[in-house]
Each structure stands twice: as C-alpha cells, then as structure tokens.
Amino acid sequence: MALHQGLYQKLQQKLSPQQIQLMKLLQVPTSALEERIKEEIEENPALETGPDSDDNEQDSAELEIDQTDDFSSDESNDIDNETYENYLDEDEVGDYKLKDDQVPELSENLNFTQPVSSSLHEMLEDQLRLLNVEPTEEKIAEQIIGSIDDDGYLRRDTNSIVDDLAFKQNIIVEADEVEKLIRQIQHFEPIGVAARDVQECLLIQLRKKAIDHSTTSYKNALRIIEFHFEEFTKRHFDKISKSLEITEESIKEAINEIRKLNPRPGSQLGELNKAEHYIIPDFFVYNNAGLLELTLNQKNAPDLKVSSEYKEMLREYEKGSKKDKKQKEAVMFIKQKIDSAKWFIDAIKQRHETLFNTMQAIIEHQQAFFLTGDETALRPMILKDIAEKTALDISTISRVANSKFVQTEFGSFRLKYFFSESLSTDSGEEVSTREVKMILGEMINAESKQNPLSDDSLTEMLNEKGYNIARRTVAKYREQLNIPVARLRKEL
Prior knowledge:
By secondary structure, the protein is of the alpha+beta class.
C-alpha cells in the first residue's frame, strides 16, 4: 500500500493535565486527602502549607520583564514581554477552606492513645515459643503459621509446605513431621486454627468441648459433623435423625451447641483490629429546626499557598542585569513549579466546590430521609438525577460518590447508600428498591422458621402490598441481602 499525504479534519476531546488531576482528587476520600497533599508538597517545593504572611509585599503587578533583556539563546522570546503578576499575586488560599464556626476545632497538641493489638500470626508465634521443640521443628512450625490465612485456615497442602521448606529454607522434612506439628498448632488459641476446611475446624472445637463437657448434646454434635456434615449443611434433619437414631429434640440440642462454635477462628482478632479503624466522614449534615445544613470535613485539608521563596526568586530575576541561558532555564523551572502549585491549589478548591454541590443535590433529593431517618422515605435516585441537578458529568458524580461518607444524626452512611433503582406500585407511584428490600427482610424475619416462606410466597405477599415485582427479582433481592433460600432457613 503506497504512502500519501493529505489534509483531514477530525474532532477530538482531550483532558488537560489540570482536569486529570481534578478527577483523581475527586476520588480521594477525606481520610486520605492529607497524605495526598503531603505527596504533592514533597514533589513540588513551590507548594507550602500555612496561612498567607506576605500582606506587606510589593504589588506583584509592577514586576515585569524588560523587553530588552539580553539572552544568549534565540528562544528567549517566550519570557520576554511576559508579566509575572500571575505568579506572584496568589497567596490567598484560605478561602477554599469551608470551615464551620459552630463546630470547635480540636487542639493540635492533643495526644491520642493508640490501642495495641497482636495479629493472629503474632499470637500463634507467641504460643509456639512456649513449646519445648527443637530449632528445626520451630522453623517448620513458623512456616506452617505463616501459611495460615486471616480466617485461621491452612489452605496450603502439606506437600507444598514440605517443598517450601526444602527450596526456601533448605530444610528436608517428611510430610508426617509437618502433620504432627500441624496437629499441635490446631490446639493453639483460638481453638480450630490451622484447620483445612470448615468440617475439620468444627471437629477440633467439638472434640475439645466434648473432653471438657462430656454431655450427650456434644457427643451428638460431634457425630453429626463427623459423619453427616453434608446433610447438616443442607438441613436434611430427617435423614440425620433416621441415620443416628436420635429424636428431633436431640438434634435441636446438638445444633444449638454447633452454633456456638466459630467457623472462622482467626476472624476474632481481625474484627478487633477492624474496630480500631474509624470512619472519617467527608460531609456533616445537621438538622437545624427542620432546615438541613451541610458542611464539609476540612480537618485533613491544610491551607496551601505558593512558596514565597520561589516568588522572591522571580523578583531577583527581574532585578538582575545579566540574563544568560542558564538563568533563563532556572526561571523556566521556577515558573513550571509555581504553575504546578497553582494548579494543585485550584484543583483542591474545585474539589471542595464539586463535593459540596453534589452532596447538596443529594440532600435536596433525599430531604425526607435526612429529616426523619426513615429508610422507606428514600426516593429512587440514580447518578443521572444528580448529574442533571449539578450540571456535572455522570462520571464526575460517580467519582464523588466513591468511598465517601456523610455523617447525620441517624448515623454515618456511604454516599452510594442513597442511590437506588425505582420500582412501580399498583398506583403508578415509583418507590426505591431499597424500600422493597427492607420490607422483604422484615417478612423473612417475621416468618416461622419451622416453615419458612418460599420465594413464590414472598412474591405473592409483596404483590398484595401493591409492589409489582417478579419472582426472579425477589430471589435477586434476597441474595443481595445475604439471605439463604427457604430450605436453608428451616429450623427444628
């Protein structure tokens, strides 16, 4: 195919570096904003934190470059005739900080105590130190402990652990020796750790309890888990009763003991550590005598300004008489850093403005919920609805709603919590699918566990309440609520 030249017209849309920077900042939650600002300050020396202190400086509009500056390079025209006003007159950056005078700020000198907790692996290694084992066995046990996941399960095969020891630590060991140490670790606290699956985990805990409390209920529970685990998971209690020749009352007592066990022994420490992670809300909504007031959380957004030292460098350049190529390159570097600092400050300002306008539109749309806290008062709302109210793009609204929280008098909620599809009733009214899910959950909670409601029955009940909904939709909502099917909800 021959190459040829030609003139073509085509329309393209390209994002500027400032727009890309703004899109990235919109996705950053308030809890991570301070870290993002620190990264920018480290990369750009022309950006500083703190209030403006240059109130008495000379008006930067008077600082201009003389057109007769003599540069050794012909490329000096991009600096000639250029005013430095845009680089020296923007120190005010505190105005984008939307502070609430009614909410007192915490003192920076306050000391907060940090809770200290151990991870699952650290806890197991501490117990390992109490055993009288050989140094080689200790290394093998450490390898086993390191292979345990956060739930407390040993997912790796014994032969794989043997290979890891041989190739990584040059320890040649038989699989039987590894199994022996695994059985020892399985009796560490929490009981059931290092099990290969749920059945083994429950068996370890039941055997321990059967030794401490030799009762009939524990023995029956042990037999159910050991010989009829599949029937137990599928709630086939009649088959278990016939096979073990025990009454339904005995099965019920055994199941009550099984429910007291922990199928995820490692999750206890994980939940304790998660409890230390506090949600930092991005918005605060207050109900002031029926009037909703919105404020942004600016605790992690320090004041930003352009470095006064870099502006002074430009002033020195203007005063200097000799302007060679090296000095021109230095000035271009300074201008680039000042531009970058100004863009970042403007992006922070625009981020706050976009967040505020978006949250204000959500409040106006879901005003009934913010006033009452009633989940059924939530109106159907999709990203397009808020995009139309704020005159922003749908992708921008999606970025704002991502990983953001709002604190109300009814608790803290993700912004995504307020978005839901619509569903029509018999009267033609559109209601939120969240309302339907809540009613569905209430129906299941109120059902008889001896005879739980099927999806068909739930569909009929919702239709009687006026909600036009299909059976497959009910099944989808039930799965989204993490509720099992009727057979698995059955109890004795």
